[in-house]
Design goal:
Blueprint: H1 15-28, H2 34-43, H3 47-60, H4 66-73, H5 83-89, H6 98-107, H7 110-121, H8 129-140, H9 147-164
Length: 165
């Protein structure tokens, strides 16, 4: 986390204090500190702080947080705590990142798979076919397909049919 004197989280080192500050910002709907929350999201190693930060940014619909979330999804350090990151992506217009979500549905734990499948379920009825094709390719290449992968493939095939009608 940036130790800039102007950062709203400056001087807070205890995760509970940081989460309390996030809750204060949420209650006040004070989006003027969105950049500080994004910095916190990108730099914290605490899962609970990261979850609180990403949910606040999703609630505020700060689209510039999406690349940070994607980077975190691809970070080995978050391997066991990606469910909330994927859940938060549902609040953004982020259909272009569908291949990333497809990867997560194939490699994630139960929470990740559940949230990733919900992302698929919430997709619009029509979508850029190249994104669908790339996502289908990722899903179909998993050797050990489970219910989540098959459900996601079915959803993408249904959207393809809508695109073609």
């Amino acid at each position: 986390m940036s130790d800039s004197i102007n950062n709203v989280f400056y001087g807070l080192s205890n995760p509970e204090q940081i989460i309390d500050k996030i809750d204060e910002l949420d209650s006040a709907n004070d989006m003027s500190f969105a950049d500080d929350v994004k910095t916190l999201l990108a730099t914290t190693s605490d899962d609970n702080v990261r979850n609180a930060a990403v949910l606040l940014l999703a609630d505020w619909k700060i689209d510039t947080a999406v690349p940070i979330i994607i980077k975190l999804l691809n970070d080995e350090a978050t391997k066991h705590s990606r469910g909330t990151l994927i859940y938060a992506l549902q609040f953004f217009d982020a259909t272009d990142i569908l291949p990333t979500i497809a990867t997560q549905i194939g490699i994630g734990n139960f929470e990740v798979k559940e949230n990733a499948l919900q992302f698929f379920i919430d997709l619009p009825d029509q979508l850029d076919q190249s994104i669908i094709n790339k996502s289908l390719s990722i899903l179909e290449n998993f050797a050990n397909k489970d219910k989540y992968i098959y459900d996601a493939i079915d959803i993408l095939n249904e959207i393809t049919e809508n695109n073609n009608s």
